[in-house]
Design brief:
This protein has 11 helices and 11 strands. With about 325 residues, the protein is an alpha/beta fold. The chain folds into 2 domains: about 20-120 and about 245-315, D-Maltodextrin-Binding Protein, domain 2 (3-Layer(aba) Sandwich), CATH 3.40.190; about 120-240, D-Maltodextrin-Binding Protein, domain 2. Belongs to the UPF0065 (bug) family.
Length: about 325
């Protein structure tokens, strides 16, 4: 082969490699199992962003240890923009701090891409217990030994911390009963084995409609369109600082290409105008968010400022 052909062959090879790279699928890691709410939101996001960018996106589930397994997987992959993950308020603002030696740093280990949306949590009690408002719940807390028995999907969950923060601020005696998942706690609540629980509003709404639960307050700054008759936590007489909806975001490994981060952020924001995307997430009671990459850390810093002192105060950190 004569040397004069080499530059042309090299250029063709580079173009071919670039084209192959452009067509290779992106991987998005879901930190909850298939069929979960977080997984469903991840798949809706992946499908829409794939439509917007023309790049295939593959969802890979890596559940376990409240997101730590998924985070470790992301951290073990190249920071090349081909791997991202969806992450929740819990993993960004609570999970690291319930360990005395945090397994990761949520503010330093990721490049934020976008906040997909928010979803409020609601404090509920079982029907037939004679509780209609927050003041009624206070009477129950003060009337029984050990105080109010409240459940959560697990120690260190947003539901646990929100309810703990409420009882602490209101100076109610209370005992936390952790369950393995929201479903087990819901069953105990409807069976009146516990007196109260904080649930994601989508879970609570069906049981409220069926007459099995009574909602007392939404942990949000504004009332939910799903339950417009239910007061916010401040309107109900609780501290306004607890207006903390759950949220889900997309992140990449720290050091990922800025152009990839910008492209995925733009695609996510464009998805808000995609009727299929918005209707599917609205059906999951997610309020869509228009966000910049920096908003992921801004959301995290805002909530860490509340959760970390509470975790320390309640002594929730373990080895």
């Amino acid at each position: 082969m004569t040397p004069r052909f080499l530059p042309g062959l090299l250029a063709a090879s580079l173009l071919s490699a670039f084209a192959a790279s452009a067509q290779s699928p992106m991987q998005v890691i879901a930190q909850q199992p298939p069929g979960s709410g977080s997984d469903a939101m991840t798949r809706v996001w992946a499908e829409c962003v794939a439509r917007q960018t023309g790049q295939a996106i593959v969802v890979v589930n890596k559940p376990g240890a409240n997101g730590i397994l998924a985070i470790n997987q992301l951290k073990g992959l190249p920071a090349d923009g081909a791997n991202v993950m969806t992450i929740g308020m819990s993993q960004m603002t609570i999970t690291p701090f319930v360990h005395r030696q945090p397994p990761y740093d949520p503010l330093k280990d990721f490049d934020g891409i976008a906040v997909i949306g928010t979803s409020p949590l609601v404090l509920v009690v079982p029907s037939g217990a004679g509780i209609q408002r927050l003041s009624d719940l206070e009477k129950v807390a003060r009337a029984q030994s050990g105080g109010l028995n409240f459940g959560s999907p697990g120690k260190g969950s947003p539901a646990h911390l929100l309810t703990s923060a409420l009882t602490d601020a209101m100076k109610w005696p209370a005992t936390h009963i952790p369950f393995v998942g929201e479903g087990a706690g819901l069953t105990a609540l409807m069976g009146q084995q516990i007196q109260a629980m904080t649930l994601v509003i989508g879970t609570a709404a069906a049981q409220v409609k069926a007459g099995k639960l009574v909602p007392l307050a939404v942990f949000a700054a504004e009332r939910s369109s799903l339950m417009p008759e239910v007061p916010t936590i401040a309107e109900a007489g609780g501290p306004a600082v607890l207006a903390r909806p759950a949220w889900i975001a997309v992140v990449a490994k720290k050091g990922s290409p800025p152009e990839t981060v910008a492209r995925l952020n733009e695609a996510t924001n464009k998805c808000r105008s995609d009727s299929q995307y918005s209707s599917r997430l609205n059906a999951m009671n997610v309020t869509l968010t228009d966000s910049k990459p920096s908003d992921v850390n801004a959301f995290a810093e805002r909530d860490i400022a509340v959760w970390k002192p509470l975790i320390d105060k309640l002594g929730l950190a373990t080895e």
